[in-house]
Design a protein that fits this description.
Blueprint lengths: L2 H11 L6 H11 L4 E8 L2 E7 L4 H7 L9 H4 L9 E2 H4 L2 H6 L1 H7 L4 E11 L4 E10 L7 H8 L2 H7 L2 H9 L10 E8 L4 E5 L9 E3 L2 E3 L6 H14 L3 E6 L5 E8 L8 E2 L1 E9 L11 H8 L3 H11 L4 H7 L4 H15 L4 H9 L2
Antiparallel strand pairs: 1-2, 1-5, 2-12, 3-4, 4-5, 6-7, 6-13, 8-9, 10-11, 11-13
Helix pairs in contact: 1-2, 1-9, 12-13, 13-15, 13-16, 14-15
Amino acid sequence: MQYQSASETFLGACLAPEGMSHALERIAHSVRAEAANLIFSHGTQQLGTVYSEALREHVAAYVRNDTPEDPRVARVNPSLREGFRFDQDDFTTEEMSRDPFYQDFLRPRGYGWHACALLASSPTGETINISLKRTLKQGMFDPAELIELTAQLPLIRATASISQLMGRAFESDRTALGDQYRAVFGFDEKGAAFVLHEQDETAEVLTVRHSCLFAPNPVNRPKLDAALQTAHATAREASVLVTDAIGGRWVLRVIPAALMARPWLTSLASLVVLKSLDRMQLPRPEDRARIADLFHLSATEARVATLIGQGKSVVDVATLLSSSPGTVRNHLKAVFAKTGVSRQSELTALLSRL
């Protein structure tokens, strides 16, 4: 298989998360490796991985608490100025022969060698690494093969930006992590919150203090607490509308790990995404027919849904449709039932992603 073909497959998969597993498999096979995975990290904390099919039976065991500590996390730190690094670049043969991770975890599973390269990094500490795995039977990597694949890294890195690739792995939809996504927070398995991405303007709406997610505006705090409790208790996505100090509207989404895109395994308990409602690509009037067809809405229900999705209140919609607020609320209840949401903010968030 040609190396260029493997890199083109990877680039295409950046635009389609469900294709990433296949792309990683092709890249691995192009250098006669058994498997490959992407490792998403924030600082020294590994957040999760997207993996090729061959790793499916092993990757869950890797994140268990009883797994020997992986020494590569602390020692293997490739830079954007270099290509792939081998095990022997960072460990001696003697070290690997007596390390519990290599001997008690990798060897019983048939794996013996790996090569790693950095694809993307950010000033706030987020990184994406690609790791190629070879079995004991396949033997060590041939440096000449990886030199060929390393030549494709600039092309791969050009598209593997944190905001695009990481966002597409986390999100279950196909919307790129663009300007409307202003802040992203994570909760680890112990319930501690940390920042994945934020900007100055979002810190006035939501931030992290002492490992806790904090809303500076007291009005938003019960909404935040309710959304977190709902999502964590029911393992369902929860959305709520919050405001900033100058009246700007923001949609806060809590996404439990179980709802994140597959194939994906993460140590996060959940993800919190904050995006500006005022900057969203809101549904347009011409989208009504598509929305009606998608959710089996009547013409009036589709008009109500579209107007609510544009941020208008029930009273505003009633005025525009020359109707009463009570009638609009009845149509809205029907829309909620057909779309599977229960709040206007959830409906707005749903329609903004179509």
